[in-house]
């Protein structure tokens, strides 16, 4: 069941009908975020996994270029 949930990028609860929330609940650390940061996190969570990887690679490249 875990493999199925991972494949569809959702939770097991969603697959078995215990919730109508399709997105996985992700653990986050305790941070104080401003509105702009919250928007970035919300948008990041909306992305498919392959686009998340692409965005992370772009951020890494920008940070490397800034050094």
The residue-averaged pLDDT reads 88
Percent of residues in β-strands: under 5%
Q: What is the share of helical residues?
A: 55-70%
Query: Could you give the count of β-strands?
Result: 0
Q: Compute the separation of the termini in Å.
A: 44 Å
Could you characterize the architecture of this molecule?
The chain has 4 helices and no strands. By secondary structure, the chain is mostly helical. The protein has 2 domains: 30 residues, no CATH class; 37 residues, no CATH class. The longest helix is centred in the C-terminal third of the chain and has 18 residues. The radius of gyration is 15 Å and the shape is extended.
Set down the secondary structure blueprint.
Layout: H1 2-7, H2 12-15, H3 35-46, H4 49-66
Features of this protein?
67 residues; 60% helix; mainly alpha; 0% strand; 2 domains
Task: Describe the structure concisely for a colleague.
The protein has helices at 2-7, 12-15, 35-46, 49-66.
């Amino acid at each position: 069941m875990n493999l199925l949930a991972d494949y569809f990028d959702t939770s097991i609860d969603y697959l078995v009908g215990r919730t109508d929330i399709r997105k996985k609940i992700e653990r986050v650390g305790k941070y104080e975020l401003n509105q702009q940061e919250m928007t970035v996190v919300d948008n990041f969570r909306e992305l498919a996994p392959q686009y998340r990887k692409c965005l992370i690679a772009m951020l890494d490249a920008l940070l490397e270029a800034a050094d």
